[in-house]
Amino acid sequence: MATQASAATGIQLRYGTSTVPEVTNLSDIGGQFTMVDVSAHDGNGWTSRIPTLLDGGVIRVLCNFVPNNAIQKSLRDAMLARTSGAFSIIYPNAGPTWTFNAFVMNYRIPSAAVNAALQVNIDLQVDGPITMP
User: Which of 25, 59, 94, 109: disulfide with 124, CB 3.0–4.6 Å?
Assistant: First the structure.
């Protein structure tokens, strides 16, 4: 049986309607919920937990740094202004598009090694739900 897997090549990150250029890696895309302990004294000595709020967490973006690119600059400006903006992740091969709002909570150059690409780390703190069709 042939695999139904697809390569990640071609995935796009959009800020508003503009594609963020030179994305080399996206990680931690999805959601999670927090578990709360609801154990009671009459619970026979066993722990009991329930799920609470869903959280999109932090989506980590790594890009080749393009200092004069308007989109990369606008992400930096959004961090400085502490504003939440609209994002979407478009999967390759006619895959789904996930949409969400997020704060740019981190915008930094991780290193400037002599023999490496100059990159920028951008962390997006999801603000509200991720629409996953």
Answer: 59
